[in-house]
Amino acid sequence: MDRSEIITLISETYTMDSIGQQISTETERDIYCNARSVTRNEWEAGGQMGLNPQLQVRVFAPDYQGEKIVEFHGKRYSVYRTYQASNEIIELYLENQVGTK
Q1: How far apart are CA 15 and CA 39, in angstroms?
Q2: CA distance linking residue 80 with residue 61, whole number of Å
Q3: What pTM was estimated for this model as a whole?
Q4: Are 10 and 70 in contact, with CB atoms under 8 Å apart?
Q5: Residue 41 is inside which H or E element, if any?
Q6: Interacting residues of 33 by C-beta distance below 8 A, sequence separation 6+
Q7: What are the pLDDT tens digits along the chain (101 aa)?
Q8: SS3 88
């Protein structure tokens, strides 16, 4: 697998402040990947479910720990589904994350 691109995986944790509000804290880490556009079928099927599919990113499975937010080339995406392509490779399917950069 060509791993010539770097993506940032972002995990969120929540803590309570002194008045009981949940405060989100993000933790970022960079990993190597192979990014490409989603197929026409993926784009169409996602659109029918109200999603906005944009990218498919292949990463080594041990590098991915269930993060739901990805930053790629300065833009944030949400992981809307994953696919275990092999024991070593997992595919992340990303959509535009509304309300961010």
Answers
A1: 39
A2: 17
A3: 0.84
A4: yes
A5: helix 40-48
A6: 3, 5, 6, 7, 57, 58, 59
A7: 667 899 999 999 898 988 989 998 999 999 999 999 888 888 888 888 888 889 999 999 999 999 999 999 999 999 999 999 999 999 999 998 765 54
A8: coil
